[in-house]
Design goal:
The protein is built from seven helices and eleven strands. The chain is α+β, with helices and mostly antiparallel strands. The strands form two sheets. The protein has a seven-stranded mixed beta sheet, with helices on both faces. Strands 1-2-4-3 form a four-stranded mixed beta sheet, with helices on one face. Strand 3 (about 45) and strand 4 (about 55) form a beta hairpin. The longest helix is centred in the C-terminal third of the chain and has 14 residues, at about 205-215.
């Protein structure tokens, strides 16, 4: 693994360097500039707040192609009942705070540190990160956020306070953007996203798509 210098914003080339179990590098900092550069390279941070920052680019990569979205009959009924409403970029700060606070099965804490959260908020203020909010009876009950690079959306984290809220928000987002999004980066496997049609693809294929969108933007 490569140790990053805090005074220099650089990463190993993920196309040439496989790292250790998907970890490309460690160390560095969580500045907005480094974070944005990392996502453009297909690299993302994932670590325990009391440990070194770890930078990942796993192979294979878990992604969703919008036209391969799968919606179960039960979820379609929920969406048709319109029990949820959806907005975009209306409350990024509350979405990411809820993602940080939400209790997750099998996890005793959160990987989303205060420092990382503030960097994502700055990326949002620069128009580089977006949030999707899910509302029920005027209350924020779910949502997710991520980084937009051309026609690639790099999903980061989601939360739900009521059953099916985050899933409904994700389906709404994909269906609303299927003509403008080429790929949604889900990063690592979850059964939740697999049920919606996400699948593993080779890292090289993911990076090719990402780099093409870097050139377009």
């Amino acid at each position: 693994m490569v140790r990053l210098d805090e005074n220099e914003i650089s990463f190993p080339d993920p196309e040439l360097y496989d790292g250790h179990e998907g970890i490309i590098a460690y160390g560095g900092d969580l500045s907005v500039e480094r974070l944005w550069f990392a996502y453009q390279l297909g690299i993302f941070p994932w670590y325990n707040p009391d440990e070194e920052i770890l930078w990942w680019c796993p192979d294979p990569r878990f992604v969703l192609f919008p036209y391969e979205l799968k919606v179960s009959k039960s979820m379609r009924k929920i969406l048709d009942k319109e029990i949820f409403s959806f907005t975009e970029n209306q409350n990024f700060r509350e979405v990411i705070k809820n993602c940080q606070r939400i209790n997750r099965r099998g996890q005793s804490g959160t990987w989303l540190s205060d420092e990382l959260m503030e960097s994502f908020i700055q990326l949002h203020e620069y128009g580089l990160a977006k949030s999707i909010e899910v509302w029920q009876d005027g209350k924020l009950v779910g949502g997710f956020y991520g980084i937009q690079i051309g026609q690639v959306f790099c999903g980061e984290s989601m939360f739900a306070k009521v059953s099916n809220a985050s899933k409904a928000g994700f389906i709404h987002f994909v269906e609303s953007n299927k003509d403008t999004l080429e790929l949604i980066d889900c990063q690592s496997h979850t059964d939740h996203l697999k049920s919606l049609g996400a699948k593993m693809i080779p890292k090289r294929e993911f990076l090719k798509t990402l780099h093409t969108n870097n050139e377009r933007k």
